[in-house]
Specification:
This protein has 259 residues and is an all-alpha fold. The longest helix is centred in the middle third of the chain and has 33 residues. The chain is 83% helix and 0% strand. The relative contact order is 0.23.
Amino acid sequence: MIGNVIEFLMRIPLLLRVLIIGLIPASLTALGTAPIFLGVRLGRKSLDVGMGFASGVMLVASFTSLLIPAIERSDVKTVIIGFIIGVVTIKALDVIIPHEHGSIASGEGGLAIGLRRAQLMALAMIIHNIPEGMAVGATTIYSVADGLTIAFAIGLQDIPEGLAVAIPILMITGNIGTSFIMGALSGLAEALATMLPVLMVTYAQMTLPFVLSLASGAMIYVVIHEIIPEIYGHEYDELITLGFFAGFLTMLVLDNLIG
């Protein structure tokens, strides 16, 4: 079954191939947002453990699907330069684009201020999703099987992220439709980001190893600078660590099964 899917994807144009695979995590993000229609709410513990899981997935993917293939196909100098540029790029986005982390207390500061904070948190998640999308796109160029692996693994950890974007907006606006759309859009941003590596390789004439290492640097920066500091220190450190190792092992298993 998987072999047939890979064979089909290999026959279609690269841009369409990457987009289809990129829609996997985007769709799972939207799926994760959908429970707000059932009145489901996400507590701090669930979010932190889910993000711990995401960190494990992203860390393994950064090495097995990005850095190692880059090193195998190029020299270390190219890989190091690409890695550093990836870190600097996401750091620049982190500084330039206004965004906010943390939880939102219902009604805090009034509707307008609360909505602004919710929008800033949504932007923070979009920034978080850009390197994930780039990782899926870059990996798919290198290997369809590896691209599917990382798309499903990242998509799995995107499920609680979609809910994490939608709930603060729902708390402020009370509008389920708007909350769902904002959560789904964070996943769509990830799908669009999968196109960046294709454009970089095809039109900017950047080498694939450079793009792979760039995506790796961007994703590791998000894990170390954005996710880890945000989730620890909320009384759930042991569960978060277990979530991290669950994500770590899940990515290894998926890498073995699909790759």
